[in-house]
């Protein structure tokens, strides 16, 4: 599996293979990220505005590499392996902190040069089924203090997505809850008010949801029935105009019957189809849509790079102003 990146690269988060420098911090077509290729059992990419964290998983163990900006360093960090991460199962990165999940604990490290600093640690119950960060046993982790926030166990959370000021939670029965800032309709409750506690998104009541994501001012989910992404957000028509949409609305992806995964950036969205194509839409000022321009679009648009290179997209992770994609060569039909 190979990883590609496009969008904002002002701190060297992508470092295309064979390219020593770039005239612009904008990358508007996918470029190969050389330092996350070839891991024995796979790589999971996480992104913040200025940095990228790669969770390398192999038979002999796992670790995290960080690329991009590191506090206190005068230079960009090029894929530095963090010894503190040896054996971790998952990671999240923010502008200042790196969260590491292990089978028996979760740790938050302040990322700084020349030495990282452990600022918080919590023992973790590993008797239950594993969940992905930011979910942990008994609650979830925030990217700033206080790091741990409790969650009611009755919610039966299986997935949690954190936006800049709001959260979207998915339960085991496919129900969606949201809370936090609702100033742009990102909670999907039909109003622009905030919610202190998790509240069910009633407009999705009875529609089983299987994936959720959250950006700065918007959220998205994928239903099990329609197999189409549902936006709970502001509608993005141009760089200078924002339309508020406070109720979830079905997004029409042309000629697509199934969405396998979805991810939200600051003001853009990316979705992978069941056939391995990538569609993006929203704000494109830094090239984060991957269409070869820096234009924005309301309409989900196919990223031509991958089918034109006979590649099948497997996953997508959006940073705030960029997008990271894993892909493999398409299987050729027998001759």
TrEMBL record:
It comes from Cyprinus carpio (Common carp). InterPro entries: RCC1_domain-containing, Reg_chr_condens. This is RCC1 domain-containing protein 1 isoform X2. RCC repeats lie at residues 174-225, 276-329. It comes from the Eukaryota.
